[in-house]
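protein under study:
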Amino acid sequence: MAKKNEIIVKDVAIKTMSKDGIDYISITDIARQKNAADPNGVIANIYAEEADVLNVAMFGMTAKQWREANPDLKGNIRTTLPSTN
């Protein structure tokens, strides 16, 4: 069973959880400090930025740049790659 705790960071309670020897921290609690009304928007931006970094590293362009360069293709930069099977 998971053990739930919290830590205090800059006077803010952040939920933590330990399960099978692995410690987890609540990203949502942290995001609420940036935008209490929409913490999920903060999280979505973080993941979108990471995805763009990966796309540029792997494909040389962001997803938006790919969509603009390929308006007639359906899917995204990854789903239109040729199969390696």
Remarks:
- The beta strands are 3-9, 12-19, 22-25.
- The first helix runs from residue 27 to 34.
- Residues 65 and 77 are 10 Å apart (CA to CA).
- The chain has a mean pLDDT of 86.
